[in-house]
Every structure is written in structure tokens, then in C-alpha cells.
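Researcher: Here's a chain I'd like modeled. Treat it as a single chain, no partners, no ligands.
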Amino acid sequence: MREFSRRGMLGLGVGAAALSVAGCSPSRSSGSDGSKDAAVPAQRAQAKPIGDGSTAYTGKQPNQPPKPERLEPGQKPPQFVVFSWDGAAEVGNGLFSRFRKLARDHNASMTFFLSGLYLLPESKKRLYRPPNNPVGASDIGYLNDEHIKETLKNLRAAWLEGHEIGTHFNGHFGGEGKGSVRWWTPVQWESEIEQAQSFVSEWRSHTGFTDVDPLPFDYSKELVGARTPQLLGQDNLLPTARKLGWRYDSSSPGGLQVWPTKKQGLWDLPLQQIPFPGHSFEVLSMDYNIAANQSPTSIIKGPPANYPGWRRQATQAYISGFQRAYETNRAPFFVGNHFEEWNGGIYMDAVEEAIKHIADDRHKDVRMVSFRQLCDWLDAQDPQVLADLRRLEVGKKFTGRG
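Model: Modeled as a single isolated chain. C-alpha cells:
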């Protein structure tokens, strides 16, 4: 088994990007995991359409935590856990609704980093003008009409259930080439963000759909954070993100399990290096990176005989990362995922098992929240209390009052 550096490999965003980079066609599987969508609250009477009616103002987002409490000096903090999803498309495999149901079952909120192109039909791809790339280009392709509708349905339900809708931008251009987001300027990032917002806010004009309810939020106000493709380009993104009033970014290429700081005025909330069972190095807390370490020649379909062992290893990596934080410095624990069935779907099973473990009654004062909800709590704290928490290194036990 190939061993990568402690930082592991950088995530490719939605699985279609990983396949595209490998020169393969995106997998769009059919079928369902059997889970059913729970009823979600109907739009309230005061809903006001925005623009072409693709979105609507429906009031304050429901199902949010109470006002954050302020820690006293020396008081043990809650254990925050954020599960996030890059791309956030429903492509017929039922994974979006599966994890929405899992979140409901375990009182969890999550962050969905939506790729704007997933609401733009391929027939309208020339509306997309990616920086340093041909008009309409995309490393993740485009969804068909059915999958756009299913994605809209799940996004609407997710927001009403209390989840956050962030952005994974649009065309997912990674690597080293001149078109990579690695080289984009702050002005180019601003163009990319404006386009992502327009694809979400004008999907009705672009698709012509008349049988789909509007998204129940104003995306210009909803959007307060992001994760970049392959975790590239953060330095030039941040000035634009700050100008737009964003609150956080989750694009740093691998962080330690310590309390977060701000970078250029935004909370820096990176994926983290976590224990990788059976190895001396650590792996990034993302399904793609675990898969790339287990089956580097093909994360799509490695030897099926290895799936049971790989599933256990992936599950234990997530659990080990959580336990290390929970039992020591209580640093927020961040996990990144994709709605993909790599290696027979074992990483989806691993994430599910990790969520169930974290939600176990044995773990007191655990809060599975979105990144935005975590920012609400961080912003409510005494800066000196947070500074004291930051002094706790990885694995250093919290010794204040319980």
C-alpha cells in the first residue's frame, strides 16, 4: 500500500472531478439506498420570490441552535463536529437524502458546499466563463435535467432542516496547469463567485423548470463560506471573501486538530490530519484522501476483496480523529465528504458509522453543527478564552473545570 506524506493527498471535490482528472467519464449510478425523505416544512405564507423566482425569502432559517452561550474561563467547551459535503449533487444514488435522514436521526446539522454548475443545464454551458479556461469548460461536467431537479429538491429540504448551503464554486479546475484555481487572482475569484451565485439564483430561467419549488433562501445572504477545488488558491480567495462579507473558509490544505484561528479576517476551518490505523503517518479527514491512500491506482473500483478491511480502516480513522479531540483538547473536528460510491460505497458506510459513534449517548456535550453555526459560537466567545484553548496542542488534555 502506497504511503503518502502526513498531509495525505488533496481532495478533488465532487467525485466527478476525480474521475475527470483521471480521464474517465463521471459515474451517474441509479438506484436508491432505500431511505425516504421525511416531510419538510412547507414554505411559510410570507415567502417572497426573489428575481425570477428561483429563490425566495421565507424568513429566518428554521431548526437552528439556541443563541450561543459564552464559556467562562477554564470551562470545558462542547465538542463540535462538522460534517461537510463537496459538490452536493444528487445524481440518482440516493446519497443526499440518505445523509439528510441520518442527520435528522442524530440531531445533526451539516454544511453542503454546492457546485453552482450543478444547477446549470449543459445546453446553457456557454453562460459559464471560467477564469483562464474556455467558455463552458468544466472538470466535473454537467447534470442532466432529472438530477438537477433532484438536487434542487434536496437543497431545499436541507436548508429547511437547518443545514448550511455554502459553495464549492463551479468548474473545479485543479492541478498545476494555467487554468487551475491555484493561479486565480482575487478579481478572478470574484467573477467565479458571482457566476456561482447566479447559477443558484437563476436556475429557473436557465432550466425552464416550472414544476420545482424555489429554494427558500436568498443565496446572496446565505453564502458565507466555501471550500476550494483540491484545496487550492486560498491565499487569493481570502481578500475577495472578506470583501464579500464571508465569515469563514475551509480550503487550507490540511490542518492540525487544534482550535481555529482567523486568516485575513475569516475563520480558517481546514480539514485535519487524523490518525490512519495501521500507518505511522496521518491522513486528511476526507473520504477521497483515505480512498487514495488505500487504492491509489483506482479509487473507483479497487479489489473488492479489500473492501471490508478498507471500510473498517476508514471508519476507525474518523472515530480516532473524533476521540482524540473529545478526550483531549476538545478542538472542533472537521470531516469532508463526497456523495460518491468509490470502492463499493465503503466510505459512505464509514461516514455513517462514524456519525452513529459520535452521537452515542456515552459522548456528552457533543454538537454536530454546520460551519456557519460553529462560527456563531466562536464569535460569541471571549477572545481570551479562545486564546487559552489555542494553547492546547494536538492530544494535549484539557485540564480546566469540567
